[in-house]
Amino acid sequence: ASMLCRLLQLRKHQQRESSLRPFFSPAVTSAFANKDPDAVLRPRQCLVSVLFCDLRGFSKTSEALSDDLLKLLSIVSQSLGVMTRVILDQGGVIGDFHGDAAMGFWGWPIDQPDAAFRAVTAAIEIQNQIKAMAAEGSHEVFKMGIGIGTGEAVAGRIGTDDQVKVTAFGPVVNVASRLEGMTQQLGCSILIDEATALALPSNSPFAAMPLGEIQPFAMERSVKVFHIADVNEEMEQPNSAELGQVKLAVEAFGAGNWDAAKEYLQRISDNDPTKRLLLKTMWELVTPPENFKGLIPMTRK
Questions:
Q1: How many whole angstroms separate alpha carbon 102 and alpha carbon 237?
Q2: What is the C-alpha R_g of the chain?
Q3: Main-chain dihedrals φ then ψ at residue 268, nearest 5 degrees
Q4: Exposed site from 112, 133, 165, 206, fewest CB < 10 Å?
């Protein structure tokens, strides 16, 4: 009887894990193994890296497929499936879905010192897989907009008495969302904030290229923005010399020394997003405004 009781308890435990699996990522369910689920899911403040990933061109495609909504749903489901699978493979947690967008984060329920690296690795892998699907003709040709922010947030079971979800909450989530929204305006697929760039290891296989200090639309705080070289645009990874010129150009631009900034930019590829952004800003303003501190405001989301 004792053995049968233990077998029944084990069976119930397995059934509970099986029922939870679709709702929680492997990182969360594994944390349940040795801890009370209520304790694991209890909201707590922690350092996280948040990723927002959105499909570009979705509105246009949805209009074209307005008479075939099942096909549209299939296309979006495939894309969201790629985002979800990659985020989970990199040890992240799915925080939410917003139509054709997904939000994932790292650093909870267990601390992950390499959270920023995992997030950027996930972003690049999502790009590569979507590109491969498009090349095979098994997927509509979507481009991706991805924003990543790193900072303190409250993560865990968040919601009301009637409905809850496992997600992250805090300013860093808004920053990641705004960065994703700026990808199209700035001609980049992956934008990250300074905290994410500084958290990347020195031997990282990808370089974080500075764009400048940008004030997102309708936000009071500014963000030092970096971009990761976009493999979908067939841009070569920058070498150390070009990275140095980009940094010097951004510094000269911020200091109001625009002649020097233009000289540095001449040594950079015309396809570089930093070059396009700084030249466009200098062309529109002609000369540095009074008390200029290098801040580039966004006029729309």
A1: 27
A2: 22
A3: -110, 150
A4: 165
